[in-house]
Write a structure and sequence with these properties.
Layout lengths: L39 H15 L2 H15 L16 H6 L1 H19 L4 H18 L5 H17 L6 H24 L11
Helix pairs in contact: 1-4, 1-7, 2-4, 2-6, 4-5, 5-7, 6-7
Length: 198
């Protein structure tokens, strides 16, 4: 390269929700020994902000799932009831999508209500992880992606309750959720598939 040529610009980093995730692989090598525990103040922040969100849990859940499926359409492959839906308005009217949105939001609610009881949180998330690994065969990366989408929707729909410092606390919680879920995948012997084989 001559002196007049500038080096090519660096490629942008991957989106935060995708760091370290490859199709079909659970982040075993990078997985810390345990999730970073939340402080009492962080638990209180999460529970306070969640109270505002959960008042509209179905609508918020539907918004999260619609954005998830529009931005990551490959995730729809796990949902025979609405995998062929392309139109967000059609998705919004789908009773099956609304039902799943309630399930997702209720699972998060159970986690938030039990933040004082780490064993209960671990147990709930282990059940979710095992069901998605064994019964539904959902790749674990979708949990990380869904967490990122959820944080986007919450911060956009509830800006007064989700300033940057609150978003950081929620990011920590979602990291712990992902840690527990991927632990369940590992526990059931989730097969790692190389991205080139898929």
């Amino acid at each position: 390269m001559s002196r007049r040529e500038s080096p090519p610009p660096p490629s942008p980093p991957p989106p935060p929700q995708m760091l370290g995730v490859r199709r079909g692989e659970v982040e075993c090598e990078d997985r810390p020994e345990r999730a970073e525990p939340l402080s009492d103040a962080e638990r209180e922040i999460i529970q306070d902000t969640w109270g505002h969100v959960y008042k509209n849990c179905e609508d918020v859940g539907v918004s999260v799932l619609i954005r998830f499926f529009v931005n990551f359409p490959s995730a729809k492959q796990y949902f025979s009831q609405f995998q062929d839906m392309e139109d967000p308005e059609e998705m919004e009217r789908s009773s099956q999508l609304r039902h799943h949105a309630r399930r997702v939001m209720n699972a998060i609610n159970t986690v938030v209500e039990n933040l004082h009881d780490p064993e209960k949180v671990s147990s709930v998330l282990a059940l979710v992880g095992k069901a998605h690994a064994i019964k539904h065969k959902v790749e674990p990366m979708y949990f990380k992606i869904l967490s990122g989408v959820m944080l986007e929707v919450l911060s956009e729909d509830f800006p007064e309750f989700f300033p940057a410092e609150v978003q950081m606390v929620w990011t920590k919680l979602m990291g712990a959720v992902y840690w527990h879920v991927t632990g369940a995948y590992t526990e059931v012997g989730w097969l790692q598939v190389s991205s080139s084989a898929v």
